Amino acid sequence: MRRQLKIPPADCQLCERLARFRQDNRRLYPEWFNAPVPAFSGARTRLLIVGLAPGLKGANKTGRPFTGDYAGDLLYAALLRFGFASGAYKARLDDSLELIDCSITNAVRCVPPKNKPVAAEINMCRRFLSAEIAHHKHLRAILALGRISHDSLISAFGLRRTDFSFSHGANHRLSRDITLFDSYHCSRYNTNTRRLREDMFMQVFCQIRSFLSG
Ligand code: URA
């Protein structure tokens, strides 16, 4: 029998600062999701995408990773273009978007103040990232969006960060079955400063698609 996936409770208290921020947001925005954002999954998953943490007015509001966040526009466009999603992305939970062979989660499940989780929060939340990885029996590729997510994944696999440095466009063998792909995060800051251009992001998905077809 398949084991139940370990997820944080809606009132997770593991990180004091994030729990306090959640309480504040519940008071300010009672209509919003305001809880640890669960992974968004297709029926089977060979590709897992790992972002940083929910955005305050995006994933933390809607309850689905990258949904309503600026970064979601580019991410979901790439997934649709490369056949990892179908339907339409409308930045709302009730759009018709479905993932195909792919899941999306975050290194940290709760929205952090100023979009910046601290090291202790990233380390604390890794138990849920590890559980998500273990849950996907067909997993072959992981895409880390940004260095923080890359580093947390390296630790989740019990590897040494000094042996696997983050570099946009690089890939790293993490285990017999699983390869990690690195991309700069598709954040507003990275796209506005042109650190990440659309073609650079699409190129990473092109690599992943050909890896999975190989
Ligand atoms: N940025 C992330 O890294 N994750 C989200 O869910 C939203 C924005």
Structure description:
The protein is built from seven helices and eight strands; from the N terminus they run H-E-E-H-H-E-E-E-H-E-H-E-E-H-H. It has a six-stranded mixed sheet, with helices on both faces. A two-stranded antiparallel sheet has the order 3-4. The protein is of the alpha/beta class and 214 residues long. It is globular, with a radius of gyration of 16 Å. It has a single domain, classed as Uracil-DNA glycosylase-like domain (Uracil-DNA Glycosylase, subunit E). The two termini are 30 Å apart. A hairpin with a 5-residue loop joins strand 7 and strand 8. Helix 4 packs across helix 5. The structure holds uracil. The site of uracil has 13 residues, from loops.
Which short descriptors sum up this protein?
binds uracil; two-stranded antiparallel ribbon; globular; 7 helices; Uracil-DNA Glycosylase, subunit E; 214 residues; alpha/beta
Short précis:
By secondary structure, the protein is an alpha/beta fold.
Structural class: alpha/beta
Q: Indicate the percent of residues in helices.
A: 25-40%
Molecules bound to protein: uracil
- Strand tally is 8
Runs with pLDDT <50, length 5+?
A: none
CATH H-tier superfamily: Uracil-DNA glycosylase-like domain
**Tally of discrete structural domains:** 1
Q: For the residues shown, what is the average pLDDT?
A: 97
CATH architecture: 3-Layer(aba) Sandwich
Strands of the biggest beta sheet: in what spatial order? 1-5-2-6-8-7
- Residue fraction in strands: 5-15%
CATH topology (fold) name = Uracil-DNA Glycosylase, subunit E
